[in-house]
Specification:
The chain has helices at residues 3-12, 23-36, 52-61, 70-78, 95-103, 114-123, 155-164, 186-202, 227-242, 255-258, and strands spanning 18-21, 40-45, 64-67, 86-88, 108-111, 128-132, 140-142, 168-173, 178-180, 209-211, 248-251, 262-272, 281-285, 305-307, 314-320, 329-339, 347-351, 372-375. By secondary structure, the chain is of the alpha/beta class. The chain folds into two domains: 89-253, Alanine racemase (TIM Barrel), CATH 3.20.20.10; 260-375, Lyase, Ornithine Decarboxylase, Chain A, domain 1 (Beta Barrel), CATH 2.40.37. Strand 15 (314-320) and strand 16 (329-339) form a beta hairpin. The longest helix is centred in the middle third of the chain and has 17 residues, at 186-202. The two termini are 13 Å apart. Pathway: Amine and polyamine biosynthesis; putrescine biosynthesis via L-ornithine pathway; putrescine from L-ornithine: step 1/1. The modification N6-(pyridoxal phosphate)lysine is found at residue 47. This is ornithine decarboxylase.
Length: 376
């Protein structure tokens, strides 16, 4: 929590749950990535937090943008990015959206199968495409499913198909899993990418770029390595697998860029027990899974939670949200220790919430308003 956020909450006293994001933290994070990997372009993952102030700051700093939809592309353009600094990184796109992106100047598209290649060939002739491959995501706190990407052995056929249809087979991408705390996680995926580069060269097609995705973590309850440690490990792996023929490289930080910049202010609505014999209390907040804390699903992301009574004796508590939905329970398998003196009406501060909160907030589920956000 920064002093600027504390002062904002102290003086503004916004009503209801809200997210406060400190742009100074975002600026420093961007500079950290730039220092750690100076030869790699940063494509900020807009889906993590598309606040106009965040996008404008990053555009001014020189960032590029990874976009998943036409509205995200339009947000990046409105923030000052030029089309050559935008990637349409979603592998699942309507053909009319491909055509629209191409019309407004986007030339870099993700694919993971031949059918997606054919859409782009029809609607964005001459565009550059990169093929996303599957990665196991081991050690990630928020592992990714098999929804995006193809088996690495399949990628050369996809890229050659693109080449035959008049597109530029530009490179390979992967994602090692979100909130990846293992700095060595990129090594295996880079080995696969290098193998694809070699096979494509044997087919007479020269690839140029490796998109190393996101995965860079935010600190929650456990310590995470500094950005510089990731930079050293990734740079070493690139040199090991590509030798002197180094490719262009891209990273797509989202959580790692903005997660630590935000704090959610929430309020205790109710404290109760389910049985007179129960040692565990239930603490209900005015924010839950549907209000922006969707990443508490399966308790994957465990946010630091602060109260003004943290020096008091503590007791285990289940934490839940306010909606009339039984899945709106944040932490039950592993309860949080919260102050015994915690009372209805007390404020709690949920740290590390700058990413994937406003964008996951439901639109008026149960009549609750979407999560308000303030960028300072």
């Amino acid at each position: 929590m920064t002093a600027r956020i504390r002062e904002f909450l102290r003086t503004r006293r916004p009503e209801g749950p809200c997210l406060v994001v400190d742009l100074d933290v975002v600026r420093e994070k961007y500079m950290s990535f730039a220092r750690a990997m100076p030869d790699t372009r940063v494509f900020y993952a807009v889906k993590a937090n598309p606040a106009p102030e965040v996008l404008s700051l990053l555009a001014d700093l020189g960032s590029c943008f990874d976009c998943a939809s036409i509205p995200e592309i339009e947000m990046a353009l409105a923030a000052g990015a030029t089309p050559d600094r935008i990637s349409f990184g979603n592998t699942i796109k309507k053909e009319r959206d491909v055509a629209r992106a191409h019309q407004i100047g986007i030339r870099l598209f993700a694919v993971d199968c031949e059918a997606e290649v054919e859409k782009i060939a029809r609607s964005a002739p001459g565009a550059r495409v990169f093929c996303r491959i599957l990665s196991d995501g081991a050690d990630a706190e928020w592992p990714l499913s098999r929804k995006f990407g193809c088996d690495p052995e399949m990628a050369p056929a996809v890229l050659e198909h693109a080449h035959r249809l008049g597109l530029e087979a530009y490179g390979v991408s992967f994602h090692v899993g979100s909130q990846q705390r293992n700095t060595e996680a990129w090594d295996g995926a880079l080995a696969s990418a290098a193998s694809i580069f070699r096979e494509m060269a044997e087919r007479g097609i020269t690839l140029k770029m490796v998109n190393m995705g996101g995965g860079f973590p935010t600190q929650y309850l456990r310590q995470v390595p500094e950005v510089g440690a990731y930079g050293q490990s990734i740079t070493s792996a690139i040199r090991k697998h590509f030798g002197n023929r180094l490719p262009e490289t891209i990273i797509e930080p989202g959580r790692g860029m903005v997660g630590g910049a935000g704090v959610i202010k929430a309020e205790v609505v109710l404290i109760s027990k389910k049985s007179v014999k129960d040692d565990v209390r239930w603490v209900y907040l005015d924010i839950g899974k549907f209000g922006g804390l969707a990443e508490t699903m399966d308790e994957a992301i465990r946010y630091p939670i602060l109260t003004e009574r943290d020096t008091d004796e503590k007791t285990p508590c289940v934490i839940a949200g306010p909606t009339c939905d039984s899945v709106d329970v944040l932490y039950e398998k592993t309860p949080y220790d919260l102050p015994v003196s915690l009372a209805i009406g007390d404020e709690v501060l949920i740290e590390g919430t700058g990413a994937y909160t406003t964008t996951y907030s439901a639109v008026a589920f149960n009549g609750f308003a979407p999560l308000k956000a303030y960028v300072i």
